[in-house]
Every structure is written in C-alpha cells, then in structure tokens.
Design a protein that fits this description.
Immunoglobulin-like, mainly beta, 2 helices, about 270 residues, four-stranded antiparallel β-sheet, 21 strands, seven-stranded antiparallel β-sheet
C-alpha cells in the first residue's frame, strides 16, 4: 500500500512538472509572449535623391515580457537582400537604452539613398538575428537623380496633398494604420521640431475624438520632395460618422493643401 502511494505521488509530481514546462510562453503567438513589439509610427521621405542622406524615425513599443538591452536588441530592415547589400547604408539600429515592458523607443537614424529606382522600406524588431513583433508599415520610396527639382513661384510654406490610405469603417476604440503622403511645394525646408502632420478637420465638433500620436518629421524635407507619414489612429469610443482630415503645420499653424476629407463610419 505504501509503495502504491509513493508511485502515485511521483506520478503526480511528474505531471505537475511537465505541465509547468509546457505551459510557459513560447514566444510564437502565445498571449504572454517573451519577445513582442507593437509598431507605433514612422517618418520616412517618400522621394529621395540618389547618394543623398535622409533622416528616418521609427517608434516601437515593448509589448512582451523581455527587457530590450543595448547590444542584443535592434531595429532591422525586413528586406534581407537589401540589408545584405547595404542598399540604404544602414540595415540595423541598436536600441540606445534599456527598454522595459510597456515602454516605447524611438529610433532616429540617417540613411543614404541608393541608385535611382523604386523601393519599399519596412522595419521590424529583432533579438540578435531573430525577428519578432509587429513590423512597421511598408513605405514606398522613389529615388531620383542628384539634381533636385526646381520650384518656381512658390510661397514660403506650402504643401500639396499627394495620397492617403485611411479606413472608411472602424470599430469604436480600435487602432488602425494610416498613411498620408505630402509634397513640399514651398520654398522653405520642413525641419523636425518645426513642421509636423496634424489632424485638421475644420467646422466639426468631433475633431478631438481622434487619438493620434504626434506625427513628427525624422529629417528635413526639401522643397519639391515628398514625405510619407505613417502612423496609428484610434477610433472614437462612440459610434457615428466622423470626419478625418490631415494637414501640415509649422509652429502649430496649418498651411498648404489638406488631405481629402474622409468620412469614417464608427460602430
């Protein structure tokens, strides 16, 4: 009888140990993931001159359980072929400080435009060489010759709306990706800290219901150049129809052509 109880106890202990081992997060889609990241926003010039340097900014949030430490964790270019060929001169950017779970990190770095052509740029967090988490949105980039376009009869601060991707249907309180492309048609350079993209819906009392992080420039946008603003927007908590429109602002004052107004249905 004692022998039987001992065997039963050992089997129970073995089961508990096995269950504990297999119930640990795997990092491959489990709810409690060790390495995980959420993409927040980025700023990348949509048009570049070959051989010239440009600033890029990508914001990520640590949504896993691991602590991102300098030397181990980095932001990497998703296109392995371009990374290997050093197409953009930079393919990996280390975290510049320790990033604990729940905290955000902004990667600001400079790239050099490659030879003339059309490209797509996308970034993702990596632990060593292992990618993880949500990648940034893909940004289309057009690289042209070294001679910048000539802008004549331009006013100091001016912009032209090029295109956008905005969902016209959203679930209340949910977050969605938005892309807005603007062109600098003035004769001044848009500089980080001075110019940014802002929600500009006019004549509507629901403007303040949109939750949007600051959409900052990562580097200068020269006259005649395009810039792609890629960011996340959170839908209002109440159902209804809402106007969504963006415009470039300098020192908190709107200027230039706003984006086409999108009427978003929120349920």
């Amino acid at each position: 009888m004692k022998k039987f109880k001992l065997i039963t106890a050992l089997l129970a202990l073995s089961f508990l140990l096995t269950s504990s081992i297999y119930s640990q997060p795997t990092g491959n889609g489990a709810t409690d993931v060790y390495n995980n990241a959420s993409y927040l926003s980025q700023s990348t010039p949509g048009e570049m001159n070959a051989g010239q340097s440009y600033g890029v900014s990508v914001s990520m949030k640590n949504t896993g359980r691991s602590i991102w430490k300098q030397g181990n964790y980095s932001l990497k270019l998703v296109n392995v072929t371009e990374a290997t060929a050093k197409t953009w001169s930079v393919s990996s950017v280390n975290v510049n400080s320790t990033v604990s779970p729940g905290n955000e990190v902004v990667f600001n770095f400079t790239i050099i435009a490659p030879v003339e052509g059309s490209y797509n740029m996308q970034w993702q967090m990596a632990d060593g060489n292992a990618f993880f988490g949500e990648p940034s949105m893909t940004v289309p980039i057009r690289v042209i010759g070294l001679t910048p376009p000539v802008v004549s009869d331009a006013i100091s601060n001016n912009s032209q709306f090029v295109s956008q991707q905005v969902p016209d249907y959203m679930d209340a309180g949910q977050t969605y990706d938005v892309i807005v492309i603007m062109k600098n048609t003035g004769n001044t350079t848009w500089n980080p800290g001075e110019s940014r993209l802002k929600i500009s819906t006019k004549g509507a009392d629901n403007t303040g219901n949109w939750l949007v992080a600051n959409v900052e420039l990562s580097g200068p946008v020269y006259s005649g150049s395009n810039v792609t603003f890629s960011f996340k927007v959170t839908a209002p908590d109440k159902s209804g129809h809402y106007n969504f429109q963006c415009q470039v602002a300098r020192d908190e004052k709107f200027f230039g052509e706003p984006s086409t107004n999108v009427v978003v249905k929120v349920d």
